[in-house]
Amino acid sequence: MDMDTDTDAFVKLKGVRISSLDDDDDQEPVNIDDEDENDDDDDDDEEPEPATLGFFEKPKDEWMLYRQCFPSKAGGVPAWLDPVNLPSGRSFMCGICGEPLQFLLQVYAPIEKESTFHRMLYVFMCLSMKCLLRDQHEQWKRLPEKPSRSVKVFRCQLPRINPFYSSEPPKCDGSDKPSGSGAVLCDWCGTWKGDKLCSSCRIGRYCSEKHQSMHWRSDHKITCQQLKISSVCASNRMGTSVESHKVASNTLWPEFSIIIDDESEYNTDMCEGNALATSLISRNKNDETMDSLLGIFQGDDDKKSWAYFQERIAKAPEQVLRYYRNTSARPIWPVSSGRPSKLDIPKCSYCGGSLCCEFQILPQLLYYLGVDNEADSLDWATIVVYACEASCEGSVAYKEEYAWVQLYSSSTTLR
Ligand SMILES: [Zn+2]
Ligand SMILES: [Zn+2]
Ligand SMILES: [Zn+2]
Ligand SMILES: [Zn+2]
Question: Please, which domain of life does this record's source organism belong to (predicted)?
Answer without folding.
Answer: Eukaryota
